[in-house]
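Fold Annotation — chain and its backbone
Encoding — discrete vocabulary of local shapes
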Amino acid sequence: MIDNFQRAEILTQALPYIKKYTGQTIVIKYGGNAMVSEELKQEVMEDIVLLWLIGIKVVLVHGGGPDINEMMDKLGMEPKFIDGLRVTDEDTISVVQMVLAGKVNKTLVNLIEKHGGNAMGISGMDGRLIEADFKDEKLGYVGDIKKINIAPVTDLLEKGYIPVISTIGCDKEGNVYNINGDTAAAHIAGSLKAKRFIAMTDIAGLLKDKDDPTTLISEISTDQIPALLADGTISGGMIPKVKCCVDAINMGVDKVIIMDGRVHHSILMELLTDEGAGTMVRGK
């Protein structure tokens, strides 16, 4: 428990960071594996509303892999993956669209509004926000992003909404695509020239030893990444995540944060305290 003086002191210490970020755009990628705890989900939405209330333009991009798997199981469908990407046939893309653009998206919108924010849920199909094409025939309707039409997002931000975006794309022929959440968020952040792109996941960040959270690399520049790829420090599922971070910076994002979405109020710790959270990726 803290007393009123301590509360006031905490708010005062946050003031420089509030000044720094007010009016800036922050894109948050909320990953499926970081969404499994209802308590943490509530806290993340509280953090987002707080940032919005102090004048930060927040864009929430979400996945929902566990929810898709759950629905497929209920329908008697077996999820299949190749190199970490979901094989998405016609039946699967229908489930993906239903779960991401429906259940998950509207649940997050509802939670944000429950905590006092104004949110609007859209998918990458709305306003052709995410134009895509087939990434690889063997993956089915898994999309490779060809173009971001950012106007639907900027229109919502200008009207004071928190855009909540499900990562489904489309093409001019009407095909629907399942888009990797990190990739979609990186492209959206780059199109907005965001001040920060926060990638929430289920690990502490980039680790020197993947089995030891105390070996967290707190900050890294993009020109250090090739050496870490070569020596195996960046491996497995972290490779595409780090690549998305580099892409976002190359597209104009100031800095990218990879953080553990399972840590209570990690977003606020990163943006409004000296301590920070996770790994910061910056340009050269």
Summary: The CA atoms of residues 49 and 116 lie 7 Å apart. The chain has one domain: 24-282. The domain at 24-282 is CATH 3.40.1160.10 (Carbamate kinase).
